[in-house]
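Q: How would the structure tokens look for this protein?
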Amino acid sequence: MIPAVLPTYNRAPLSFVKGEGSWLIEADGRRFLDLGAGIAVNALGHAHPALVEALTDQANALWHVSNLYRIAPQEKLAERLVELTFADTVFFTNSGTESCELAVKMARKYRAARGEDRPVILTFEGSFHGRSSAGIAAAGSAKMTDGFGPLLPGFRHLPWGDPDALKAAAAEPDVGAILVEPVQGEGGIRPLEDGLLKEIRALCDEHGLLLILDEVQCGVGRTGRLFAHEWAGIAPDIMMVAKGIGGGFPLGAVLATEGAAGGMTAGTHGSTYGGNPLACAVGLKVLEIVADPAFLDAVNRKAGFLRQKLEGLVAAHPDVFEGVRGEGLMLGLRCRAANTDVVAAGYGEEVLTVPAADNVVRLLPALTISEDEIAAGVDRLDAAARTLAS
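A: Here is the predicted structure in token form.
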């Protein structure tokens, strides 16, 4: 008999009832150190007092009025994002998946408004852009697409990190945009080299293409800058954001330049809940905290400490781990043992991590994690590795 909850997840046998900072408390009272942060969602940890206060204050005032009317917290959050980024305008969604849908529509509407037949969007092997029809077609992997055809057309998939293939594809006359993650998350914590990201931007400029960045997982302070593309010194035309921007409350956004968004006039897109007062009140508080240069400096210090500890872990267990990769507090342990075994062994040591492709275990802790908690987390991973090696 099918369970009441549709069985599309392989859930761990854990049920958490409370969260405090970087800790989750199981129904039986055990305290787990959370190095996954809801897959990079709880950017400020669990139940951050400032976010609780922002949400409670807004909940006592106004929950929902729909986008038929002006929404003050939405306008404030959009203005703040415009101040902090390349963008001229913002549309709010509830998730990264919804942000992908709009980014694809926006890129194609831009071409249509100019009378151009250039619908193809270049994407990359190993990418993940959500599980909607556009998202799985953009990723293109059999794991994502099998059984869900016919797929949305108009995507051309390229090898990851192959500049020659990219150069050739960008010159094709039906190509209108490039969609890429500066750091692949689900694909196994694979950062795109700054030089290649600069080359992608240059190719877009050369051929009149729109550059769409998916910063759903790597954005909002995760790599030590507010957005990961800032390390390369470039700017996109369109950017997808979600996860960390809501600090645990469902919130996403599409940021765009005025030119890229030019085709999106009244009636071309909408959302019932996107940009609701509750989400935007929380998002404003998240940005207030994360965009502070001192906060980002602290993220970078903690990232260096975590990486150092993980390098030591790999050296101590060469039969379990192969290496460390990633940026900031978005790190991956490439495993020799099965990554799912490493994650499961962590449960026994009361530490939470997240599996990814390429036999990688992701570490995506709250940006507020302390160095003492980092050390404790790596100690627990060390104990988990010993159980696998024995």
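The chain has two domains: 16-34+293-389, 50-290.

The chain has a mean pLDDT of 97.

Upvote if useful.
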